[in-house]
Specification:
heterodimer; A: 228 residues; mainly alpha; 2 domains; 0% strand; B: 105 residues; two-stranded antiparallel sheet; 5 helices; 2 strands
Amino acid sequence: MSELETLRRKIRMQAISISLAITPFGVAFGALCTEAGLGTWEALGFSSLVFAGSSQFAAVTVLAEGGTIMAAVIAGLLLNLRSLAFGVAMAPSLQGSLLWRAITSQLMIDEATAVGSSQESQALRRYGYIWAGLSVFVLWNLMTWVGVTLLSGTGTLIQDLGIDATIPAAFLGLVWPKLSSKEHQVIAGVGAVVAFLLVPFVPPGIPVIAAAAAVLLLRPWEKRGSHE
Amino acid sequence: MSDAVVVMVALAAGTYTLKAFAPLVLSNKRVLPDWIKRFAMLLPTPLLAALVITSTFTSDDQIIFDARIAGVVAAMVALAKRVPFVLVIVIAAGVTALWRLVVGL
């Protein structure tokens, strides 16, 4: 086996493990859609057309809690602002025809960017991005379908099996790796407290959007260290 | 059209714009100011933390304390012990189900 093929095989393994890791999250999303009263096609529409895990969860959670359309969309979009930054990081590795760039852009998610951007050369970055993006896309939609079909019309099964608790657990799993830095601990804590305090007083969805303001504490508009 | 479909279409359009902006418009030029990138990378942390809170403690627009808390605490312990993500989800569901069965709530 050539050295290139060894590297490619390693990348494919990374892509497959990362997509296996998100499968329970996909089932939980399907369950959430069922709880929120969405049908199979609506759930799959979110997973294929939006295709951005945490933001799909956020938008449907806001809907399930009875929030407005606007609150659901804003909560979802705020979570996805990071894909703008991912795009800047990955664009050099994704050059090609307009159609190619338009299609591959849909795969601009955390996992594809993580696998892609950790490779050495542009060609391998592109290879990792596409492999991770596509395998997550396939498994994510499959698991959404599994969640929504297995759990629809089952009455209290979601509560009986504790599946409703998989949603906060999934959010927790997503935020956990970020909490190794002090800065992130602070804004996570402030965001959590703000959301908790606001729930009784404002419409659903607004506590989450308001929590985003915690970022301002770190003054991201200043250059790192410049105010020291 | 149901509310869910309106949210799906609007969110899909907005999300695609964010995903495709750099590959389609900027191409190889890195012209986004650093502070925007930094801002974009920080945002998910407080949002996800807030979502942990609202999806643990709210039901019908009210703060409520129920079995989900036990599941989330168990998930927290599992994450601290570096248990794989798949198991964390299973543990959260299992502990919550058990709590409901034994304690009620």
